[in-house]
Design a protein that fits this description.
- The chain has 268 residues and is an alpha/beta fold.
- The protein has one domain: Aldolase class I (TIM Barrel, Alpha-Beta Barrel).
- It is 43% helix and 14% strand.
- A 9-stranded parallel beta sheet has the order 5-4-3-2-1-9-8-7-6.
- It is globular.
């Protein structure tokens, strides 16, 4: 039986549209306003909400996410604060919550107690950006045994032999990286279609495309190839342009609304 993430993505498909997964750096611009923005994104119909755990040495984050992360770190945001945010959100919304994090914050928090605390806070899944499933299967299994969906990253360069193992360990959805490099603007990799088709051959999990998705993205280009899109830098760039909390919330809502209008073109 699918968990909250799988059920939400299935509903999007049943409604004849793709799924929309926004990313928000937890603790940005501060913890109070981050709560307000997260609630606004859920109100605007996010199918799943990704909360980014601020980390000082990111590998995949582009300049926009790095900037918001730096602000969150300067505000003192830790993994414990992110779990607190999830707990507050869960009391108000039913939207599935995913934590996107690097491994170090979890190691510092404690691998054994993290899944239970995350589930108690209402978290549904985790993305470990810098830990491929085969590198430390015990950590992945600890997450799964604790009731968290383990969402795996798949790149255009992922060998199909490796893809078998990734698909076997993943749950919730497959996060398909549209291009090499860091998050932000950029053209999709020419090998993207091949990897999307290879994912479907190996797994029934929804394929959600991220890295470079924004207002100008033609979602119809992914019809029949992906079931959802993930947007981070484009959304955060819009929020960064806001003059005050009210303006930032207005911009976030407008951005998500505009993308949601395109979601029916993604359904194949």
């Amino acid at each position: 039986m699918p968990g909250r993430i799988g059920a939400a993505l299935a509903r999007a498909h049943e409604n004849g549209r793709g799924a929309l997964i926004p990313f928000l750096t937890s603790g940005f611009p501060d913890l109070t306003e981050s709560d307000r923005l997260a609630s606004a994104l859920c109100d605007e119909g996010a199918d799943v909400l990704e909360l980014g755990v601020p980390f000082s040495d990111p590998l995949a984050d582009g300049p926009v996410i790095q900037r918001t992360t730096q602000i969150a770190l300067e505000r003192g945001t830790t993994l414990a604060h992110v779990l607190g945010q999830a707990l507050r959100l869960r009391s108000r919304v039913t939207t599935p919550l995913v934590l996107m994090t690097y491994l170090n914050p979890i190691l510092r928090y404690g691998v054994a107690r993290f899944p239970e605390d995350a589930r108690d806070a209402g978290v549904d899944g985790v993305i470990l950006v810098d830990l491929p499933p085969e590198e430390d299967p015990d950590v992945w299994e600890t997450m799964r045994a604790g009731g968290l969906d383990t969402i795996a990253l798949v790149a255009p360069t992922t060998p199909e032999t490796r893809l078998n193992g990734i698909a076997a360990r993943a749950s919730g959805f497959l996060y398909i990286v549209a291009r090499l490099g860091v998050t932000g603007r950029g053209e999709g990799d020419p090998r993207l279609d091949r990897i999307l088709k290879a994912c479907r051959e190996r797994s029934p999990l929804p394929r959600c495309v991220g890295f470079g998705i924004g207002r100008g993205t033609d979602l119809a280009r992914f019809r029949g190839l992906a079931e959802g899109v993930i947007v981070g830098s484009g959304l955060l760039e819009e929020i960064l342009a806001g003059a005050d909390p009210e303006d930032r919330e207005r911009r976030a809502r407008s951005f998500l609304r505009e993308l949601r209008e395109k979601l029916p073109t993604l359904a194949g």
